[in-house]
Amino acid sequence: MDNEKIKGILLDIQNTELDFTVTLTGKASKKVNGLYKPETREILLHNKNFKTDNQLVYTAIHEYTHHLINEEQIATAGGQSPVRGAKIHTQEFWVRFHELLETAEKKGYYTLSMEESPELAELTKKIRTEYLETNGRLMQEFGRLLAKAHALCEAANIRYEDYIDRVLCLPRSSARDITRVGVVPVNPSVGFDNMKLLSSIKKTEDRSAAEQQILSGKSPDSVRALMKRRTDEGNNPKTKLEKERERLSKTIAQLTQRLKFVEESLASL
Questions:
Q1: Which 8-state DSSP code applies to residue 35?
Q2: Which candidate, 42, 36, 37, places its Cα nearest to that of 20?
Q3: Model-level pTM greater than 0.85?
Q4: 42: which strand partners?
Q5: In the chain, where does the domain assigned CATH 3.30.2010.10 lie?
Q6: Do β-strands 34-37 and 21-24 pair in parallel, antiparallel, or remain unpaired?
Q7: Which fold has domain 3-106?
Q8: What is the pLDDT of residues 192-221, one digit of tens each?
Q9: Coil, helix or strand at residue 85
């Protein structure tokens, strides 16, 4: 696989108006597999680090994600180069990266397959069932016990916060998250960290949608982005005004009915 072929693959995954170059350095590096230079729009790939083209494509897509975000930042800044020193591996980055990987998989440029390693497939099954799911169920029970302890503390006139701080020696934020996982119904097979994420979603339909996303293989960052998009849609000025109009219409109808009743009552006196 040469420079132009890699560039062609990246452009086919997602096009860009900002030109860039791809260079196979012919070197190995213990520090990084690749590098993106935003000033010169160069993607450098230390191809001696990779055993297969599949590994090479993964890193190329990683660096190309930096390029696409760089392009957007330049456009937002009116053609000016973005400020250097800013965090580059943001949640936005990981969401875009995983989206590009999924496109690459659909187009046949990249694959995440464990078919060549039955041992890894068996180990993955063990991790999911005996650790992720089992730990998830334990944390659900833990959460229910904390909720019971809270009620018992109140009945005994004991400050629950002090009980958490100095008896269980748990960080309050951890106790809050664990308790919520014990109260909100979520699938323990997604693992405790994802259970915390899901249990923070208030609407049942949104929580179910996010859970299905995780179970289908979406990354936690992608699910967070989905949640944010839904929240942003809910905060859209037009949507907010439409909801307010609906609420006001109901209130006016209720007040009109009440006014009618008051007038009829006065007329009968």
A1: E
A2: 42
A3: no
A4: 21, 37
A5: 3-106
A6: unpaired
A7: Zincin-like (3.30.2010)
A8: 999 999 999 888 988 999 999 999 888 888
A9: coil
